[in-house]
Amino acid sequence: MTQEVFGRTELAALMRPAVPALVDWIVREVWQAVPVYARHGQVTRHGVECAVVLFVDLVEDPFAPRDRLYETCRRLGAGEAYEGRTLDDLQAAYRLGTRAGWRWIMRLGRRHRLSSAVMARLAEMLFGYADELARMSIRGHREAQAELDGTQAGLRRRLLRLVTGPVAVTDAVLAELAAAAGWPLPSEVAAVALKSTVDPSWGPEVLADLEPPQPYLLVPAPVDARFCASLGVRAVVGPPVSPAASAHSLRWARATLRLVGDGALPDAPVTWCAEHLTTLWLLGDAPLADQVARQELAPLAQFPERSRRRLGETLLSWLENGGNSEKIAVDLSVHPQTVRYRVRQLKQAFGERLEDPEARFAMQAALRASALRSRGA
Q1: d(CA 328, CA 311)
Q2: Whole-number average pLDDT of the chain
Q3: Which of 78, 65, 34 lies closest to 254 in space, CA to CA?
Q4: Radius of gyration (Cα) for the chain, nearest Å?
Q5: Those residues with Cβ within 8 angstroms of residue 92's Cβ, 6 or more apart along the chain or in another chain
Q6: 92-135 per-position pLDDT tens digit
Q7: Facing residues of 207 across strands?
Q8: Fewer CB atoms inside 10 A, N or C side of the chain?
Q9: What is the pLDDT of residue 106?
Q10: Can you tell me the distance from the alpha carbon of 176 to that of 196, in angstroms, rounded to the nearest whole number?
Q11: In terms of Cα–Cα distance, which of 224, 230, 244 is closest to 198?
């Protein structure tokens, strides 16, 4: 029998209906093998449900946000430390959940005749995902242990999590915590997202979270370029913000780091977010950019793919050069007569929309986003 071909969206659609049953199965396995978690039933179920739902989301979109689950895993690890336990029980629960998940995927593969390539990809995703969750719990355990030990390092990590977390912090609370952690509170800060971890070699003015998979620093602004270059790894410097708004700078820095990794932005030892804000804005929500492109560039769908690409390039140049055929010809390295022919096609396809300022703006934004993503691909 021939194997059916499934893309990411189709695979996720196959998995989602079975998620509740899988969660129940994993929870029962964990409770039976690690009885201590049966006493914390709701916490266990919440963690398992978050993990399974996010895994299916990642099958569909590898860039789905992980922050909520990472925080849950950190709290689970911290809870073990606060109760005076090692991570042995939690690691055992992760192993049980991973094995149960893989058995489920194997049954899914047999039922829908998934190819060996798809199964290999799912296996790689699942076991890599399990490693991520375990690392987050290890991180939470270490941080909680440091806090229990009363060390200043633990206070600094707690402060950093607080100012880069989702909940706003008042200036009074921030000043009090900064004083307790020995952090000279600056008027402005910038987050520095790192490709990989580094050895700490800075003073008390820098707050650092160097745990994989997303190490970062929080440094006073303006940021010294020599400091970033000395880190020795790819770094992205977020825009300067007030300390209470550190989460925004970190979010933008991490998004820019992903764009550099994808090739949408030039690869450089240090990238400054402030120089790429428009690109970050255009590519900040890929599904939304696709939706805008489908809506605003719908008239191009009638043309073959090769013609559609050329007409899209011509339309973008036409919008950017005010309709000047000579400038468009130079921009695209084609004959002006070719430009005029393509523009006639565009006017026939788009009609009066080419004279509508709002439509022109939306088309230009969609085309620029598409060009940036194509460069990354």
Answers
A1: 12
A2: 87
A3: 65
A4: 25
A5: 33, 34
A6: 999 999 999 999 999 988 988 888 888 999 999 999 999 999 99
A7: 218
A8: N
A9: 93
A10: 31
A11: 230
Q: Is the dihedral of CA 196, 202, 67, 293 positive or negative?
A: negative
Distance CA 233, CA 128 (A): 23
Residue 266 DSSP class: -
Q: How far is CA 54 from its chain centroid?
A: 13
Q: Residue 48: what are its φ and ψ, rounded to 5°?
A: -65, -45
Residue whose token pair is 């399990």: 130
pLDDT in tens, 225-261: 999 999 999 999 999 999 999 999 999 999 999 989 8
Please list, in sequence order, all residues whose beta carbon lies within 8 angstroms of the beta carbon of residue 142, skipping any fewer than 6 positions away. 77, 81, 211
**The 216-220 sheet, strands edge to edge:** 207-209, 216-220, 189-194, 235-237, 270-272
CA triple 244-247-252, angle to 5 deg:
135
Could you write out the DSSP letters of every residue in 32-93?
Answer: HH-GGGGGGHHHHHHHHHHHHHHHHHHHH-TT---HHHHHHHHHHHHHHHHTT--SHHHHHH
pLDDT score of 370? 81
Which residue(s) pair with 192 in the sheet?
217, 237
The residue-averaged pLDDT of 306-315 equals 89
The percent of residues above 90 in pLDDT, for the chain, comes to 39
Q: Which residues contact 264 (CB under 8 A, 6 or more apart)?
A: 279, 283, 372, 373, 375, 376
Mean pLDDT of 285-305: 84
User: Which range has highest mean pLDDT (250-254, 316-320, 333-337, 345-349)?
Assistant: 250-254
Angle value at C-alpha 63, between 22 and 360, nearest 5 degrees? 130
Q: Please tell me the distance from the alpha carbon of residue 309 to that of residue 331, in angstroms, as a whole number.
A: 15
Give the C-alpha separation, 176 to 164, whole Å. Answer: 16
Phi, psi of 61 (to 5 degrees): -140, 105
Reply yes or no on whether the pLDDT at 220 is more than 50.
yes
pLDDT score recorded for residue 5:
47
The residue type of 363 is: M
Q: Say what the pTM is.
A: 0.53
